[in-house]
Amino acid sequence: MFDFDELASTVPFLRFLVIVVLAALVVITLRYMWQRYLIRNQKKHQRDISQRRYIRASDKEAVFERDNYTCQICGISRDYLDDLCPGLGDYLLLEADHIRSVKRGGTGNDIDNLQCLCWRCNRKKGGNKTNQEVRDEIDYGIWYLEE
Ligand SMILES: [Zn+2]
User: Fold this and answer.
1) What is the tens place of the pLDDT at every residue in 30-63?
2) C-alpha torsion sign, points 58, 52, 78, 68
3) φ, ψ for residue 2 (rounded to 5)?
4) If 0-12 CB within 10 Å is exposed, 13-18 middle and 19+ buried, where does residue 24 land?
5) Distance 87 CA to ligand 1 centre (A)
């Protein structure tokens, strides 16, 4: 029938198996908790970044007014285009740029950290260039700034 001696000889192996399974469960649980912690931190970081990147519409308009609707790098402006052809200035796509980029700790809440750029210069500027570096690098074939 049932061999108790054989069962007794398997007990150390079963004990070992239980320990291995328990250890695996502990490791899996710890890894799960660690990854949840990392994901939560990452989400918090992303939320923080997007909050600091945000620029209120009123601030954007104030920046454009202050900079007289003129790109602070290449100097193209609504007035310049309107002089060429009345109404053309409305087609100039201006953007409010973070002078000190969000990734480097700048914020969109501070109007002094914002400047008016045309879309082309803003694409060139990206996150880690200064205005002068972009100015040295671009060649649009025409210069709007009177120097
Ligand atoms: Zn520009």
Assistant:
1) 999 999 999 999 999 999 999 999 999 999 999 9
2) positive
3) -95, 130
4) exposed
5) 19
